[in-house]
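Anyone have tokens for Transposase? Sequence:
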Amino acid sequence: MFGDSWTFQQDGGRPHIHRKTQDWCRTHLPCFIGKGHWPPNRNVMVWLGACSKGVSPLVILENGTVDHERYIQEVLPVALKFGNDMFGDSWTFQQDGGRPHIHRKTQDWCRTHLPCFIGKDHWPPNSPDLNPLDYFVWDEFVNAINRDLVTSKTALINELKRSVKNIRSEVVFESYAAWANRLYRLKQANGNCLNK
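Reply: yep, here.
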């Protein structure tokens, strides 16, 4: 199972998305606005987990900064429950290199509670090509958002909750089915970004 987070912003009725992989977003997401700092009262960070069987419940991290303590308290229990519900005690968790994820206490929590996880020293560095959320699932989620309904932060949150339910299971399955092939192609490209 992979986990990842995005920050959405309500601005003039249009949600914007901020990601570290900005070139990918500029190419694939019509509402992407690039680097920037937004007023915190209009930001909504969300976390989503995904596996071949579907997506986890959406975790909405509405107020404040997400540090390792908040990540451990609000996100990791959702990841654990979802992984266990989908696969019992036989699954592996991979997150990205975000600061809350690489913190020693987060890594300790994962070692203690998860059946298996890929530790920070073994993650591929900043590779959207190897996380199905980055190369497929987020796009499906964003395309499910009805931007006309987003007129306030509350409306954005409601639309995010509605939209995550519209992520098609066949799209999620297909993105995971393609993962081994993407891994092979990335190796053939000597770790360079994959062309579509």
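The two ends are 23 Å apart (CA to CA).
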